[in-house]
Amino acid sequence: MKYTVESDIGLKRSINEDRAAFFRREDGVQLALVADGMGGHNAGDVASTMATVEARKLFYEAHAEHFETPSTKKAWLLQTVRKLNQALYQHAKENPDCSGMGTTLILVLVNESRCLIAHVGDSRVYHFSAGTGEQITKDHSYVNALIDSGEISEEEAVHHPTKNVILRALGTDPSVEPDIYSMTLTPTSFVLVCSDGLSNKLSIKEMATIIYDKQTTLQEKGQQLVKRANDGGGEDNISLVLLMKEGES
Questions:
Q1: CA quadruple 136, 160, 229, 172: dihedral positive or negative?
Q2: Mean pLDDT of all residues in 84-101
Q3: Residue 89 forms part of a structural domain
Q4: Are 59 and 110 in contact (CB under 8 A)?
Q5: For a tag on the chain, would you pick the N or C end, based on fewer CB atoms within 10 A?
Q6: Quick check: 74 pLDDT over 80?
Q7: Is 249 part of a structural domain of the chain?
Q8: pLDDT band for position 249 (50/70/90)?
Q9: Cα 179 vs. chain centroid, distance in angstroms?
Q10: Average pLDDT over residues 214-240
Q11: Residue 204: which CATH number?
Q12: Where is the PPM-type phosphatase domain (predicted)?
């Protein structure tokens, strides 16, 4: 996969509590990550940084057999999320300044044309292929629960007062279980992993217009997505990893 990583403080925040990263092992297995931290003082920054650093360590130290089959890859993702959650939760207990800290987390494990995704919170994964786009992950948020129950529509959710309340995060509870998604890539695939600073500002159609622009490089596409979110107000940090199948222009 070709990739580009962007993480921008936005226009209103004094600190960037997002982290975005891409790692590639010597055996070809790749991992994209986005973490959107939360908590008082600098605790959100601590949470997202810890999650990123520890995930990188676990990824590079893992034995190759963890990535041989869909079941072993799923097991590795589940174990990794649980270890990260335990580390963050323990750190918050031992450090009063970090009490209540947490972070969203997206881990996208890529091996050839297969993606396996672990998801906690309201950061998102989108898949764009053959001119169309779809949201893969489902937000662990209060408004999404209201949508599922039929109490509000997706249109009403856009401006709902509890839009930013999430129901599941890494590090806030003694245990957490991620949702796992599987995805097959095509020769025209783009995969967008992003924090809500981007997804709250751009529709899938707007994202697709930027991503499918044949006149821009992958890096320019990432920069344009961030710029468009800032043009829309930039109230939050904006982070993304944009992946593209090798050989695509």
A1: negative
A2: 95
A3: yes
A4: no
A5: C
A6: yes
A7: no
A8: very low
A9: 12
A10: 97
A11: 3.60.40.10
A12: 2-245
